[in-house]
């Protein structure tokens, strides 16, 4: 018995010693590394999926390698913690990515129209050409949206839908015919079908400010089958990796039902093929049935339940939101007047918050305007008298016009704020409606940080802004829109913006002690960029790309020119006529 015990102890000790002496799985040398304490390094090693050592002595790290160690020469490039988008509708984005013509990065409407024309020529009968958000008309030389007439001229026989944020949409004549929109068609309350002098629909749909007409139109378009959605999700995740994104806090989304519409991402996670980390907040789809949805989800799932087969915190059911109840959610359309929450908002919100606290589920709340935030905080303070609100993580999303007094209230209740780069895409419209004085503090990131509130940066892609984090980063550090319009806001430093996009966002999913920093023991999630974001000319920031992206110590994306030996060619998108197959793939 004693001998057996001693043998077991010896064996365990040997295995433990072997593990301690194991060679690093990955070493990066010749890198430009700056941590959030201002320390500079040129080399880093990774063991068991986490950072093990940072050093300026590459030879010392290389002395520990064996034949299984991957050695990467960063060629002097900037290495950053992987971007963690604190508010990206990533699973929904993956469902539709292969069907969408994306206008990110183009600089003229003429180019955008040519993209639509070419896509219409390859789109089969029964399918649509769709540009679903992610752009601003102010990024174009022409500074405007396309007209219905222009869309009809370039695609007379193929329906075309162009969504501008959640402000409005432009359709060609064929799209109106397919949707059956006529002079008799009535728009949902709070939405408008624009008509000419004779009452005939022009092809312009407007949220005034309710975007329900836009939601319904998107829902009416053809969708992909399960195999196509799986392929589409793979394409979208790869695109994010090419931008240096290694984690996402998913905010659910309208027209995106859990669990049915999550099947593609869930499949990738359970197969161990989801290449980045996703924390999901769940979003009810049916007004007045929110409590029922949440009770069903809470009965079936635990908060922080991980569904990824091998990646820690790889695909997590995180909590509820960003919408908890339709009656307590405003709209972010800066081309329309600010909406008032209905009188029933407080009661509806109180019961769903109390349920989350009872079941210990984190939650997040969509709130654009200070007036909405005031009423939300009134509810939270009432609830806090009998149920401690800070017993779970809770987040205000957006908070563009939050006041200093409400920032203090958020802090007192232990809340966090997720800030997105929506002003990068709608800053011109905001200034037009509310003026530059208000715009100069929208959103007031400095005041949030001064109050000691946890802040995470995100994009709110893929519709009301782009999924490209560098557009948000550019806005945060310059105070300018992607159309180079100076909003007048006080920028934050580049290192601070990076910190909010990594460490700050990690705190919103309770991972600040394991993710988002270049430090030993943290997840080895990082990107090597095409230029130094801390020093490059500000206009170049919009062209930032990752040349190598690593998640959990594994290379998940490598640029075909810079890291040829690690590059894996992308799979073809399906259906074959997908716009993804006709854009440059790196």
Explain what the structure shows.
This protein is an alpha/beta fold. It contains 17 helices and 24 strands. The radius of gyration is 24 Å and the shape is globular. The chain starts with a helix and ends in a 28-residue tail after the last strand.
User: What's the average pLDDT?
Assistant: 95
Give the proportion of residues in helices: 25-40%
Q: Low-confidence segments, ≥5 residues, pLDDT <50?
A: 1-19
Task: For the record, give the distance between the C-alpha atoms at the N and C termini, rounded to a whole number.
Answer: 61 Å
Structural class: alpha/beta
**What assembly state would you assign to the polypeptide chains in this entry?**
single chain
Outline = globular
Count of DSSP-assigned helices: 17
Task: Report the strand count.
Answer: 24
In this structure, how is the largest beta sheet organized? 6 strands, mixed
Rounded to an integer in angstroms, the radius of gyration calculated over CA atoms is: 24 Å
- As a percent range, the share of strand residues is 15-25%
**Cross-sheet strand order for the largest sheet:** 3-2-7-22-23-24
């Amino acid at each position: 018995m004693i001998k057996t015990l001693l043998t077991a102890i010896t064996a365990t000790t040997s295995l433990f010693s072997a593990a301690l002496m194991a060679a690093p799985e990955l070493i990066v040398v010749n890198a430009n590394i700056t941590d959030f304490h201002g320390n500079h390094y040129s080399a880093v090693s990774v063991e068991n999926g986490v950072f093990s050592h940072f050093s300026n002595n590459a030879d010392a790290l290389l002395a520990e390698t064996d034949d299984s160690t991957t050695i990467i020469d960063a060629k002097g490039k900037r290495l950053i913690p992987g971007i963690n988008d604190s508010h990206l509708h990533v699973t929904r984005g993956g469902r539709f990515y292969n069907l969408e013509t994306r206008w990110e990065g183009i600089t003229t409407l003429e180019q955008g129209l040519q993209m639509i024309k070419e896509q219409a020529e390859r789109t089969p009968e029964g399918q649509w050409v769709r540009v679903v958000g992610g752009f601003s008309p102010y990024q174009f030389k022409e500074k405007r949206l396309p007209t219905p007439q222009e869309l009809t001229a370039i695609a007379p026989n193929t329906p075309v839908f162009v969504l501008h944020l959640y402000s409005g949409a432009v359709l060609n004549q064929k799209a109106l015919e397919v949707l059956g929109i006529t002079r008799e068609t009535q728009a949902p309350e709070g939405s408008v079908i624009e008509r000419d002098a004779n009452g005939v629909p022009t092809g312009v749909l407007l949220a005034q400010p309710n975007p329900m007409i836009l939601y319904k139109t998107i829902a009416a378009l053809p969708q992909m089958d399960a195999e196509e959605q799986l392929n589409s999700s793979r394409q979208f995740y790869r695109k994010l990796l090419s931008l240096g994104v290694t984690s996402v806090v998913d905010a659910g989304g309208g027209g995106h039902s859990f669990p049915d519409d999550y099947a593609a991402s869930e499949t990738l996670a359970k197969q161990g093929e989801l290449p980045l980390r996703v924390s999901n907040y769940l979003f009810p789809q049916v007004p007045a049935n929110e409590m029922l949805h949440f009770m069903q989800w809470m009965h079936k799932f635990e908060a922080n339940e991980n569904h990824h087969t091998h990646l820690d915190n790889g695909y997590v059911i995180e909590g509820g939101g960003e919408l908890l109840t339709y009656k307590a959610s405003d709209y972010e359309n800066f081309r329309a007047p600010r909406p008032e929450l209905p009188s029933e908002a407080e009661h509806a919100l109180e019961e769903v918050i109390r349920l989350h606290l009872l079941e210990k589920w984190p939650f997040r709340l969509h709130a654009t305007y200070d007036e909405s935030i005031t009423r939300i905080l009134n509810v939270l303070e009432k609830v806090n008298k009998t149920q401690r609100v800070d017993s779970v993580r809770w987040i205000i999303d957006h908070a563009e016009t939050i006041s200093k007094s409400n920032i203090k209230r958020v802090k007192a209740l232990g809340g966090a704020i997720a800030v997105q780069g929506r002003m990068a895409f709608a800053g011109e419209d905001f200034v037009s409606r509310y003026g530059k004085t208000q715009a100069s503090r929208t959103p007031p990131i400095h005041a949030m940080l001064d109050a000691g509130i946890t802040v995470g940066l995100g994009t709110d892609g893929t519709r009301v802004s782009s999924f490209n984090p560098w557009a948000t980063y550019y806005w945060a550090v310059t105070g300018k829109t992607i159309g180079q319009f100076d909003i007048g806001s006080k920028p934050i430093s580049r290192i601070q913006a990076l910190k909010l996009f990594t460490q700050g966002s990690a705190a919103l999913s309770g991972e600040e002690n394991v993710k988002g920093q270049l430090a030993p023991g943290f997840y080895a999630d990082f990107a090597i960029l095409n230029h130094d974001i801390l020093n490059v000319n500000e206009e170049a920031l919009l062209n930032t790309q990752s040349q190598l992206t690593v998640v959990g110590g594994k290379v998940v994306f490598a640029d075909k020119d810079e890291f040829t030996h690690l590059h894996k060619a992308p799979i073809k998108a399906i259906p074959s006529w997908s716009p993804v197959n006709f854009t440059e793939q790196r």
